[in-house]
Structures are given as C-alpha cells and as structure tokens.
Amino acid sequence: MTMTNNNPYKLCVAPMMGHTDMHFRYLLRLISKKTMLYTEMVASNAILHNKSKKLNKLEHINDEPVGFQLGGDNPKQLAECAKIVESYGYNEINLNIGCPSKRAQSGNFGACLFDQPKLVASCVHEIAKVTSLPVTVKTRLGIDNIDNISHLENFINIISNEGVDTFHLHARKAILKKGINPRKNRSIPPINYERVYKIKQNYPNLRIIINGEIDKPTEVVKHLENVDGVMIGRAVCNNPFLLNEIDVLIHNEKILEKESVLEEYFKYIRKNFSKEIKITDFTKHLSCIFKGYIGSKHTRAYMCHELNYEKEPVKKLEELIFKEDLWKNGQDSITTVI
Ligand SMILES: Cc1cc2nc3c(=O)[nH]c(=O)nc-3n(C[C@H](O)[C@H](O)[C@H](O)COP(=O)(O)O)c2cc1C
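Above: the input record for the complex with flavin mononucleotide. Below: its predicted structure, written as tokens.
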C-alpha cells in the first residue's frame, strides 16, 4: 500500500464545486506551475451511475499535478471510483470529510463522517488497495459538539493508521444540526488556526495543510512557518493571479504578464470551444479580472451569461480581451465568491 505523497506542494487550490472544473484548472496551471490543484467534489454515485456526468467531471487537460476529490461513504464503491480516477491520469485521491450540505448529510458523506472515523478508515483502506495514488483527506476541525482537539486527534489517529499521511484541515468546525447552509458554514464559527498548528506539532510526521480565509501572500509565508502547506479557495476565484504573487514569494518565480496568460487561455478556448460547450463555461473564470472600472458589472454579466447568445462568441471575446484591454484597470472587491 503506497500512500506517500510524492508531490510535497506548499500551496494548493481548494476543491470548489462550480469553480475548480477543468477549464478553471487549465487557467490556473497557466498561472502557476507548482501549485497543486483539486477538482470539485464528485460523489461516488455520480461516477458509477451517471455516465454523462462522469465523463464531464473526469476529463482534464494539462493541469497536473491535480488531485481528484471524491465524496462517499461506501468503501467498495469508492474503491471502484478510485480505479476510474486513476485511469484518467489524476495524481492524488482526496476524500471529502468537510461538506456540510443537506445532500451530503442525507447521503452520509462529507462532514458527517467526522464522527465515523472507522468507516472513513475502511474507505481509505479499500481505496488504497486498488490504487497506487496517494490518498489524502480534507476535513473540518470538528462537527457540532464534537469539537475539541482530542476528537480531531482521534480522527487523525485512526485514519493515519491506514497510511494516510496528508490532511487538509479547514480551520473551523462544520455546523450540521442547526441546518446552516454551506455558505454560512464557511464563515462561522471563527477560524481556528491555532488548533491546526497544534496538530502539526503533535504529528510532525504527517503533512498538515491549513485552509480557511487565507488571501494574502504574506499570510501564506507566515502559515508555512507552522504547517507543511496552505490551501486557498475563494481568494483564488476572486483573483487567480494571486497564485503568481505567492509563487514569487515562496518559489522565487517571476511576476507574470497577465496579457500573455490571457493569450494562452484564449488559444485554449478557441481550440476547445464547440457547439456542445457554452462559451461561458470558459469565460466565467475570467470575469473576475474585469473588476474595478466603470461598467465592469455589465461586462462581467456579459462574460458569464450574454456571451452565449452572440453569433460569434469567440470573436466577441477576443475583442473584449485584446482590443478593449479593460481588464488592465485592476481589481475591486465588489463581487466576490463568498
Ligand atoms: C463555491 C464553493 C464550493 C466548494 N466546494 C467544495 C468541494 O467540492 N469540496 C470541498 O472539500 N470543499 C469545498 N468548498 C470549501 C473549500 O474547499 C474551502 O475549504 C473553503 O472555501 C475555505 O477555504 P477559503 O476560505 O480559502 O475559501 C467549497 C467552497 C466554495 C466557496
């Protein structure tokens, strides 16, 4: 059973449904070569029983290193999915123990598995039996009243016994019982970085990746003094070029010219756009760079919706990006992923 992660990344982009699809990951890979990327969570049932969804969510182009995040609670089914995921060329399998949604709770996957560590152990055990990929776990610090460091340590003890050596810790508990929606579950209760640092101190041999409300390059550097890696979610959706700013600090990379990244992404769009795909599937990931000038709201609505109804959407997009150069005017924080 080989579970050791051969890609000891310092920075990764969080799995985010509706965001970290293959097109966004392609854009992010143009911006950062070393950052680990993750897919959106895909439930095991969706992979095993829904063929069309399966194909969409599994395909990917030039985005390695990239981990595939699975959701589920059935060890044999997850193992079946792991084989399929490996055959698609992913570099890691990540199990979701953080999703607080009602759907996840009714399917007994995501955050509600936090207090079923033996079942999670059996899931990673079965997955590891059939794949040579590293298996990692992304979890909250606790759920509801099961929320002190000893619960988290119990969880980590049982799962790491199965060979899992990397844990992504979203530094807050999930609130399940009160029916709070996933969005609110990303802002309450307050973030608790100290508990994550403590886990790293208590488990020096495990790779501990910290996650939650990190949005500045200097914060990343500070966290890296205490943990092995940093995972960023919303801040990357709001500004994909943040990855480059961080790479400059932690990997001595050069500052990228936004225009050349956009040129490359545009080539990708031109090559991959077809009647079966909406142009906005590509451009929704670019809309955030059009923030901060008069009329930007309108432009972003156009990029995310109206562009679909143009007769020649690719040509229109080219004009918007390269002729008008509106994106050069910088960013604001009016519309953000929260
Ligand atoms: C729109 C959205 C979708 C998300 N989808 C997932 C998901 O599929 N799997 C997962 O583990 N976490 C998911 N998350 C949670 C993020 O991975 C991350 O843990 C959380 O946003 C905190 O990090 P941040 O403060 O850097 O955004 C999602 C978050 C957002 C904003």
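Notes for the reader.
The chain has two domains: 11-251, 258-329.
DSSP finds 15 helices and eight strands in the chain.
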